[in-house]
Amino acid sequence: MNSKRIAIVGGGAAGFFAAITAAEADPSADVVIFEKRSDCLAKVRVSGGGRCNVTHACFTPRELSLHYPRGGRVLIGLFGVFQPRDTIEWFAARGTPLKTENDGRMFPITDSSGTIVDCLMRSAREAGVQTRFNAGVASIAKRPKGEFLLTITGGGETVADRVLLATGGCGSGAQSALAESLGHALEPPAPSLFTFNIESSWLRSLSGISVEPVEASVPGTRLRERGAALITHWGLSGPVILRLSAWGARLLRERDYRFTLLVNWLPGRSADDLARELSAQREQQAARLVINSPVAPLPSRLWEALAAEAGIARDTRWAALSKSGQHRLVQQLSRSELTVSGKSVNKEEFVTCGGVALAEVNLKTMESRICPGLFFAGEFLDIDGLTGGFNFQAAWTTGWIAGKGMAAGC
Ligand SMILES: Cc1cc2nc3c(=O)[nH]c(=O)nc-3n(C[C@H](O)[C@H](O)[C@H](O)COP(=O)(O)OP(=O)(O)OC[C@H]3O[C@@H](n4cnc5c(N)ncnc54)[C@H](O)[C@@H]3O)c2cc1C
């Protein structure tokens, strides 16, 4: 019997993981990765600020799934098959141990993404996977006998029994076109994991300050997140903003990234608690300047700016703070109203949501329900996660399942 021909389109995290898994599961298979760039695993290399946040130390599928704004429900089942514990073992078995940071993020012990790239490339080589660079797949046609004919950019064709589309986020029409030409509908793309542009000069003047925790919400929606915020030259960033951007990726796009953001700088306290605290200050610190006695744990520069925004003059002493001034200060502390006028790229990590609709995929194998022999993995699927190693975990999980699926009998 002829050996099975497996074509992997895309030499990223998902493509490599699927290729290695397929080649190890069926050593007689002829597995080839087609990568349009002159190098592979480019995103792995730049990921996690050059350290590669490989996965997250969360080992309960249901809990893990809560970190995926899209695809979470489906991932509960997929994580039952291959989850972070398996990722850790997979890399350790190949001489690449991972370590866990306090917040659960996992990195190679070398703190270098190059270690992960080397591990994947070495594992692919040892499993007999071939890699073709500068070999973008321009089109895929299904032949009457069931195999696929792939046209390679710059010339050449190849025939395969199994094809994996692991071409990453479906932002460009060219990537979607391959799946669409084989009968698939794609959920429309939208950026996720971005930061907010806010024009307020008082906020921008505080660039570099981080505050934890704050609660940020978008009025009139269910978008509400709590965590650390970082004030930047162009607005707000930090985990709380990235989470809002991920959960609100579609809604915020519909609003053209123009919306009102409410920030509660002291989310542990209610407005009534704050009013009581400020009243106590008026009595106990009557002679001190308001701007010199910030409410803990607010950074003093932020406190000064919020007091100014509340219309409190710099020379106001607590004893002279009017009831209405106090009320405005409480409002600023618990409901700062900021106008978001656009988004910026989060350089640490960004992904595209949307992609191949999960209802069109057999989740036991990642094979298309529409076009037998066609498989999917990674960000090209309508799955995306928060920052913290969740996006790579989705790539490893779907890549592993697809690899096994492709290696299973023809
Ligand atoms: C700056 C940055 C940092 C990140 N850091 C992290 C992190 O630390 N942890 C984490 O979990 N996630 C991180 N992510 C997200 C993570 O990188 C992606 O979710 C992950 O790379 C998706 O893997 P993939 O294999 O599906 O797609 P990709 O990594 O995008 O790979 C797809 C590959 O397919 C190739 N390709 C596309 N079309 C074709 C074609 N027609 N023919 C041939 N080849 C083609 C592309 O050139 C590319 O090499 C980061 C993302 C960015 C942008």
Write a concise synopsis of the structure shown:
This protein folds into 2 domains: 5-190 and 348-407, 3-Layer(bba) Sandwich (FAD/NAD(P)-binding domain); 194-345, no CATH class. The chain is elongated, with a radius of gyration of 25 Å.
CATH topology of the largest domain: FAD/NAD(P)-binding domain
Helix content: 25-40%
The helix-and-strand class reads alpha+beta
Distance between the termini: 11 Å
What is the approximate shape?
elongated
On the 0 to 100 scale, the average pLDDT is 96
Instruction: Please report the first level of CATH classification, the CATH class of the largest domain.
Output: Alpha Beta
How many DSSP helices? 14
As a percent range, the share of strand residues is 15-25%
Number of domains: 2
Number of DSSP strand runs = 21
CATH architecture of the largest domain, by name, is: 3-Layer(bba) Sandwich
CATH superfamily annotation of the largest domain: FAD/NAD(P)-binding domain
Radius of gyration from the alpha-carbon trace, in angstroms: 25 Å
What strand order characterises the main sheet? 12-15-14-13-16-17
Q: Can you characterise this structure?
A:
With 410 residues, the protein is of the alpha+beta class. The chain folds into two domains: 5-190 and 348-407, FAD/NAD(P)-binding domain, CATH 3.50.50; 194-345, no CATH class. Helices cover 35% and strands 25% of the residues. It is built from 14 helices and 21 strands. The protein has helices at residues 13-25, 42-50, 61-65, 72-79, 84-93, 113-127, 173-181, 201-204, 239-247, 249-254, 271-284, 300-309, 323-334, 390-407, and strands at residues 5-9, 30-34, 55-56, 98-100, 105-108, 130-132, 137-142, 148-152, 157-160, 162-165, 186-192, 194-198, 210-217, 224-231, 235-237, 259-264, 336-345, 351-356, 361-362, 367-368, 374-376. The strands form six sheets. The protein has a six-stranded antiparallel β-barrel. A five-stranded parallel β-sheet has the order 6-2-1-10-21, with helices on one face. The protein has a three-stranded antiparallel β-sheet with strand order 3-5-4. Helix 1 runs parallel beside helix 14 (390-407). The radius of gyration is 25 Å and the shape is elongated. It starts with a strand and ends with a helix. The model has no long low-confidence stretch (mean pLDDT 96). The protein binds flavin-adenine dinucleotide (FAD). Residues 9-15, 34-37, 42-43, 46-48, 52-53, 136-137, 166-168, 175, 348-351, 378-380, 389-392, 395 line the site of flavin-adenine dinucleotide.
